[in-house]
Amino acid sequence: MKKIALLFSAGLLMYACAKVPLTGRNQLALVSNEEIQPLVNEQYDQVLKEDKVVTNTPDGQKVLKVGNRMAKAVESYLISQGYQELANSFNWEFNLLQSDQVNAWCMPGGKVAFYTGIMPLTQTETGIAVVMGHEIAHAVASHSAERMSNGMLTELGVGVLSSAIGQNPTMTQAIFLQSVGIGSELGMLSFSRKHELEADELGLTFMAIAGYDPREAPVFWERMLQNENGQAPPEFLSTHPASKTRIDKLNKHMPKALEFYKE
Question: Chain-wide mean pLDDT for the chain?
């Protein structure tokens, strides 16, 4: 009986595999973006109620401007690559929130938030585009749904996964918040680092096709490295790759990104 259960689980996991658009990497897809969209809408609205929204400020308007410009360019590029359905699935929203956190995140469907704490490090619209491209890439690659699939599989098991959202909303909410970068979980660390580097690669291309110089991406991470001032935790205990690792990877992908960039 145990053997049958294992075979069933393995078969389900194989069936629930998908490929990340543009990169082709295999990913677990036990939870779809469509299934969690109601939770996305609820949580994003909740964040906007709890945190002070400052999108009407000059910095907020820059975030909105860069976000809309990049979203339009990315959708056009996805359509040109045969991803019409994916391009149509986004309902982009960009907001700047008052917080000292040096952070930004994106929920499935294109719900993006920047914190004011990251703005001094972006410095310019191109700097904002570095972060924006990275966050948009998370949405395009369905990283949150993949993280949630892995998190729910770990916490709840295959047998109850399909009904977990309705039966265990508290745990589902916690896993969801971790999956979009609001909260942390040691078990997701290596998984998160893989996503961060993939989002860096895609984000570099996205900012380039939107007309922002991708060579500014390593420069931004140099500023981030200086901002860390030796206080960053070891990479193996961080939900994000070390800034030096990101810089090296970005420079490696730069020639490809520059093919899309027109000054």
Answer: 80
